[in-house]
Design goal:
The protein has 11 helices and 4 strands. By secondary structure, the protein is an alpha+beta fold.
């Protein structure tokens, strides 16, 4: 019997886990971690994730004792390994597709997320607009988008691996859905853009993306660059303050 408790916020990394939980039909509790209040640095949370980041998850393990998990990719592997016995969004362990999914999951964790995350920072949250930083991370994010575009062009299912939506698609979706926030023009990636909309039609994605707060995919698409910058202003303040605290 599970006792899943998700600690998260409305970010591309945070919604990976809530979407997966919804796709698997699992019951879970949610605690919203408020970055503006530095909740992720409070002692009780550091007991769950010593790195002080979201998402994190606790559960009742098979021995009846609590288990803590942190890093979104690790949490996703745990959930599919333990709970996706029918392979709704995964493949049997040891299969060719299983390792292919893992490759894309690690690709997202090591490439897409960090590069687009840095683009977000330089494009929206830095104290000043630094052209070199913006261009460097925008071009790398575009390269990564092209990698997905090429993979999806050759897919017969419309998903990254095999004949179904998997944790690889779920891990990538929140980042690509935030392309507008990053300043990426999706008309350059028509197949990838279709994939974003295809994923949106899945009930698990639709429900999970709004945990723990309303997702911004639709609203951001209609905003100008100035409006997006204005929207980022409040977060910019606490991000800069948090960076100063962590540099001590």
């Amino acid at each position: 019997m599970s006792g899943i408790h998700l600690y998260t916020a409305q970010t591309p990394n945070g919604i990976k886990v809530s979407i997966l939980l919804e796709e698997l039909g699992l019951k879970y509790k949610v605690t919203h971690i408020d970055f503006a209040k530095n909740t992720q640095k409070e002692p009780w949370f550091l007991e769950i994730n010593p790195n002080g980041r979201i998402p994190a998850l606790t559960d009742t393990f098979t021995d009846g004792k609590p288990i803590r998990l942190f890093e979104s990719g690790s949490i996703m592997q745990y959930l599919t390994d333990r709970y996706d016995t029918e392979h709704k969004v995964s493949y049997p362990h040891g299969s060719r597709e299983y390792y292919e999914v893992n490759s894309w999951l690690m690709w997202q964790m090591g490439g897409l997320g960090p590069m687009q995350g840095q683009l977000n920072h330089f494009n929206r949250y830095a104290p000043e607009k630094i052209e070199y930083g913006i261009n460097r991370y925008k071009n790398e994010t575009r390269r990564l988008y092209r990698t997905m575009e090429t993979q999806l062009e050759s897919s017969t299912s419309g998903y990254l691996v095999g004949d179904r939506c998997t944790s690889a698609d779920i891990a990538c979706w929140g980042w690509v859905a935030a392309a507008r926030w990053a300043g990426i023009d999706m008309t350059e990636f028509p197949v990838l853009d279709q994939w974003v909309e295809r994923m949106l039609k899945r009930p698990g994605v639709e429900k999970g993306r709004h945990v723990p707060a309303k997702h911004t995919y639709e609203s951001h698409k209609s905003l100008s660059e100035k409006e997006l910058d204005d929207k980022a202003a409040a977060a910019k303040k606490w991000i800069q303050e948090s960076m100063k605290d962590e540099a001590k």
